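Researcher: Predict the fold of Pentatricopeptide repeat-containing protein.
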Amino acid sequence: MVKQLIKDMLVEGLAPDAVTYSMLINMYAKLGDLEEAERVLKQMTASGFVPDVAVFDSLIKGYSAEGQINKVLKLIHEMRAKNVALDPKIISTIIRLPEQTPLLWSATTASVPHSHGPSILQSAPPSLTPVHHYHVALTSRAL
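Model: Structure tokens for Pentatricopeptide repeat-containing protein follow.
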């Protein structure tokens, strides 16, 4: 489907840009089609675009909803490697993971080297203080 959409765009003289790819990734992640979202991500990077925080946010939310904690952790570390800072939405998603899938979270974090857990929130920008982290978590739970 994505290939056809992009092919149609090219026929019409329109080249997909970072926003187009980001919107497609978000759409597929919300639909739960994470394989297709990953395909679009690969095509995005192959086209020379660098995924931004919105792309990672979409994928992290999608994998969180599916309980795929290892994928969430992988994406967070990929963000760090690409110098993409965590934003309040992603931090909120991470904070809610243990309550969404407590047994899976315990098993996953027990099998992951100890340095991963604390390092996740260390990726947050300096402007986000611990108080801000808690505010984000509480606000997101109230919505």
